[in-house]
Amino acid sequence: MSDGVKSCLGNGTVSFTSCVISVWEEWVGLAHLEDFLSYLEYLLWVFTPLVVVFILPFLIVVLLYLSILFLHVYKHKNQLREAYSNNLWDGARKTLATLWDGHGAIWHGYEIHGLEKIPAEGPALIVYYHGAIPVDYYYFLANVIIQKGRTCHSVADHFLFKVPGFKLLLEVFSVIHGPQEECVKALRSGHLLGISPGGVREALFSDETYPLLWGKRKGFAQVAIDSKVPVIPMFTQNVREGFRSLGTLKFFRWIYEKFRLPIVPIYGGFPVKFRTYLGEPIPYDPKMSAAELAEKVQQAVQELINRHQKIPGNVLRALLERFQRTHTD
């Protein structure tokens, strides 16, 4: 036993634990252990939220991989039925749709307005604003499956098809990489098709002012004209407050434009209020050119943003909207 401990224990009113702490303070050179612990607590208080907001977006990726794992288990359990059923994946889609719908209801109080504008049968092109992580679009797909009994085909960026393990998920939910011929084929077959003209660029480089980064893209409009289908605009309120990106930093923009690598950090996962709004369908007009239709659709999406989104977006305000019993358009 050290001299310090012996000296401390010489005082009968002091416990052994208190003596050890006192000696440890002297040994490490800290005169005030409580001050050190208070400083450590302060650091944890400051940096923990910063770590959490960058970790939460990965939970969406985890949920996607859990969905993929479920599909593999489902496929294994139904291998014998596959040869005899044309609707093998219906049960899996409905199960995952229910789970994602539950996630949206719990975490974001998700609401969808105007779902009656989605036809019960027949084709339509849904054009939407792309958030940093399009989790709102996942909730929309879930609602279409649950309430409409339909599977909405989707167009995704090429890089998504290179993500390890995503192949089965993309196949089951009818995701294509977007050649116009494939899009027209899906619509002419009577399916719904969802597309975001802004794509990855809009996801990563738009911000809380919600600019539409469509450039001069009009391929989606040509698809609608060739397929002779209506176009339904869509926008989700507060989608930028749920997840945000650091794409406003010039370095990440340069990386993407130079190498086409979507390696922009995304943070958030905040449980803000999500409301998806579907605008009035824009009917097929044989006299309208692709450029004119593209402009008209962009104006329709912009009108939804102007009507339903307070600019600039604010995370705290979006959180408080979770507690509002009513909302105004």
From TrEMBL:
Signal peptide interval: none
The organism's place on the tree of life at top rank: Eukaryota
InterPro entries hit by this protein: Plipid/glycerol_acylTrfase
GO cellular component, one term: membrane
All residue ranges annotated as the Phospholipid/glycerol acyltransferase domain in the record: 111-234
Keywords, in A-Z order: Membrane, Transmembrane, Transmembrane helix
Cell wall biogenesis/degradation in keyword set: no
A molecular function GO annotation: acyltransferase activity
Transmembrane residue ranges: 42-71
Keyword DNA-binding set for record: no
A matching Pfam family: Acyltransferase
Annotated PANTHER family: MONOACYLGLYCEROL_DIACYLGLYCEROL O-ACYLTRANSFERASE, TRANSMEMBRANE PROTEIN 68
Name of the molecule in the record: Phospholipid/glycerol acyltransferase domain-containing protein
Source species taxonomy: Eukaryota, Metazoa, Chordata, Craniata, Vertebrata
Name of the gene this protein is made from: TMEM68
